[in-house]
């Protein structure tokens, strides 16, 4: 039985099984819906463009992949020992074919290379974004990676939150990111790509949500025991809802001062619950930066 | 300061059942062979014939034994991770975070440094000297040193399972997490020293094979007549020699940070973690090609042999290999597009990365056109090659996707990336090594491997690969980051369960490898390779007995044609032997083993801060090198009569097979 | 048995030529190590973290003496090599001893420089810049120490074995190594010390 199985594979090589595999793939796809994919169903123009770029590149590359698959199966079938193909034991060069095999991939890479140049600049995470219809200014938020939670400081409003990033959907989000622990990576996949957070350094990320909603954001760079808990919800709210939310935060009793920050920065074992701070030291973000990048010893010892 | 440094009873794995289990399995895996060898009284034989050997074929076999053992170890890590992720939705699974982290770190470290590197080095060792018609490598003793340093590194990783713990910082060991502040234990030190000790071994291997290929080729074999596997080995060796110093530097700096409290990569006092990422990937990206180029060489040899045609576009393949090797040094930054470099920097590195797809694509097409108009037999080695072509292009496509910076912003650090590089390293590199094993096994041992089981290995690995990694691509699109010990997103779980099932198929494939070995050894008498040329081969390694005599060739063959042996057979010039003359070979020496052991002890002592032991090991290394350089090299001389008697059985078989007439001179 | 002896000689000759090529390759790997250490030094140059600045660290005459010792030792090694070529074993040994002494003086000066710096609180633990400085310069110093060990071994071999082909080949390779360290030192001088003095 097993021998028969093997023989059937070698006589009509590969065709059957690859068909089967594709089928399996389809079953998997339909069984588990990809509709929850933040990458395939993005909620902002940055992520949408990134998706389009990806799908377009896949389509271009399939023009090579499909011939490769076809040619492989065809050669294996036709030129197997005892097959229909004519055996030419010395045929090993052809200028025409050589030009094709160098030229084909080259053209495709030139094409995608062009896209790379255009879109790397267009989707530069550091580039400030504008909303077309209005001339609204970006909404600034400072994000700090802690063990193992995210602290968000809203310099415009003088408030801070933990593990919840809320912004008015009508304004682009301008993030300044740093870390008060190891290197981490900040990402809200539904809105756009990620950027590293590193101690003593600031990185920037500009995002827009084109509809109100709640999206998952997280650290994607392994950072220790609590890494799986290092996610947060990012909420893009309509202006009215945002004002309501702001009211709630302003009514919160806790304030984020230096002492409280030290307590907050301690590693947490389980998921850190959402916290609101009605006021925050406006220089907190810079102080956190200065702990590591201080040019003089006075600052290194910590203004914090 | 104590006599044993940081080492105390707490280093023993009594703190958890998982750790105990790992330790017991490791100890058993060491003890059982030791007991068996002692029971059979095989130690003197093992020492004389194998451990002290400087014969490239035996060194190659020992490398592959190490690689297979480490493949098992690395795979156990893999299936444990798959099992954990398959169940850890909204719960802790069965692995505490600390264990899960050690496991993903050791899986990567072992698979790259102690599975893939020894596997390819072993195949190169066995085959390249034969393919270029040499008696041995340029530096046989250095070869033995390289082997034992690699083994010492593997030994350090294995030791960490029993004494102390392994790193939790991932195989790339990014600081500041891997720094002393965030990883105060011995784990990262084990990682550093395993890499440094084996890295020295790899560097020496690289130098050894550059000199071997440049200086020891058969008469007439110009560079453009070398078999493609030799070309890819030359390029890989150059990459090793150029890239591994970077690994040494970056590991040493991290070690200085950790041991002496310096500030290369710390958060505080002017450390710069971005420099680590740069230095690591200046080694790390070429490393990918170090692993895959020899596999490309194997696919080339296998395709030509089993299509019974010369390689299509030999020159293209050579240039493509060289271009890949060159470009591999220009792309390292694509591993951290998300570090905040300017758009222009990211764009340049993105394009440089994609350019590599051109020579790689050329290779794929050249292999296909080698099959075209051929006469194909589906030996397991060729099945691996076809499986590689079909699957590797998917990895190529996702690789180009990841090379587009804006797309990478979305995919970086997700399981999509994990699926991509496994797509390159399993169907790309490992399939090549397995194909090489199926193809060249008879040359090393004198009998062929069971082909039925070979096909089982191929199908189980292929199906297992698709089932394990296609879901990871998809769950990456769902936004799942890598290295996640538990999660709260229910949509991910079905994919992870399928991936676990895939891992089970791979487990079956892994078992099939050992079953095949067992069955083949049992049936070895039926499957003897008496002519030394079981597949109607094309290159010189098939123009000698299987296994070859210690000196490889009684008289050095000519290499003045591409596919030299095939041409000889076509023109009926093969198997014309002349009177042999004396041959000199280096004698066996135990110094390689001693150097390896000293290196291992040095690493262990440095990990645990046992300074006196480190000093002793260092003195021992220096003393061994000085003694070695001051002593006359010992050689063994093969007289013509001995050579004739050693060649007799092969020539008799050739005569029986009708390949040489009785009247031909011997 | 002259056939065998010829064969052995041939074997040895081939071996030694291979070793020379291998040694060039080794030097190349070592050059890469230094290149990366240099690059790291440049990257870390401004990361003094409030510790001692480069300008306050170095003493021109001290570095001058170090450089003199090392360059002279290269010359004396060259003289030793010429003496070996001219079949003057005693002279060769003498020049090697001189090389050794100069090398030891260089190391002594370097250690003194390090000790002085550490006494001024400019330790490698103080800042990223100092970590890079100490590592770069000490790696060179470590190489010099290994070279000195090699010279001692070669003195022994010259005395014990005389001018055999393997000894000459080893001396040649050691010479490459020693001159290579000179070149690295010139690099260190230009990258580490010179910019500070010019400013």
Automatic annotation (TrEMBL), chain A:
Record GO biological process: ATP synthesis coupled electron transport
Electron transport as UniProt keyword: yes
Gene name per UniProt: cyoA
SUPFAM superfamilies for the chain: Cupredoxins (SSF49503), Cytochrome c oxidase subunit II-like, transmembrane region (SSF81464)
Residue ranges constituting the Cytochrome oxidase subunit II copper A binding domain according to the UniProt record: 136-248
Keywords attached to this entry: Cell membrane, Electron transport, Lipoprotein, Membrane, Oxidoreductase, Palmitate, Respiratory chain, Transmembrane, Transmembrane helix, Transport
Family affiliation: Belongs to the cytochrome c oxidase subunit 2 family.
Any Pfam family: COX2
Broad class of where this protein is predominantly found: membrane
UniProt subcellular location: Cell membrane
Name of the protein described by the UniProt record: Ubiquinol oxidase subunit 2
GO MF entry, a single one: cytochrome-c oxidase activity
Transmembrane domains' residue ranges: 20-41, 53-75, 96-121
TrEMBL record, chain B:
Entry's Gene Ontology BP terms: aerobic respiration; electron transport coupled proton transport; respiratory electron transport chain
Keyword Metal-binding: yes
TM annotation in the entry: 14-39, 60-83, 103-128, 140-163, 190-216, 228-256, 276-296, 317-335, 347-369, 381-404, 416-435, 456-475, 495-519, 583-604, 610-627
Domain Cytochrome oxidase subunit I profile residues, every copy: 41-560
InterPro entries in UniProt: Cyt_c_oxase-like_su1_dom, Cyt_c_oxase-like_su1_sf, Cyt_C_Oxase_1, Cyt_c_Oxase_su1_BS
One CC-aspect GO term: plasma membrane
Cellular compartments annotated: Cell membrane
Pfam family name, one: COX1
Cofactor(s) demanded: Fe(II)-heme o; Cu(2+); heme b
Leading EC class: translocase
Primary localization: membrane
Keywords carried by this UniProt record: Cell membrane, Copper, Electron transport, Heme, Iron, Membrane, Metal-binding, Oxidoreductase, Respiratory chain, Transmembrane, Transmembrane helix, Transport
Membrane topology: Multi-pass membrane protein
Family the entry assigns: Belongs to the heme-copper respiratory oxidase family.
Name under which the protein is recorded: Cytochrome bo(3) ubiquinol oxidase subunit 1
Automatic annotation (TrEMBL), chain C:
Record bears the keyword NAD: no
Keywords on record: Cell membrane, Membrane, Transmembrane, Transmembrane helix
Gene Ontology molecular-function annotations: cytochrome-c oxidase activity
GO terms for cellular component: plasma membrane
Topology term for the membrane: Multi-pass membrane protein
Subcellular location(s) per record: Cell membrane
One of the protein's GO biological processes: aerobic electron transport chain
SUPFAM superfamilies: Cytochrome c oxidase subunit III-like
Subunit (UniProt): Heterooctamer of two A chains, two B chains, two C chains and two D chains.
Function of the molecule: Cytochrome bo(3) ubiquinol terminal oxidase is the component of the aerobic respiratory chain of E.coli that predominates when cells are grown at high aeration. Has proton pump activity across the membrane in addition to electron transfer, pumping 2 protons/electron.
Family: Belongs to the cytochrome c oxidase subunit 3 family.
Protein name: Cytochrome bo(3) ubiquinol oxidase subunit 3
Protein source organism: Parendozoicomonas haliclonae
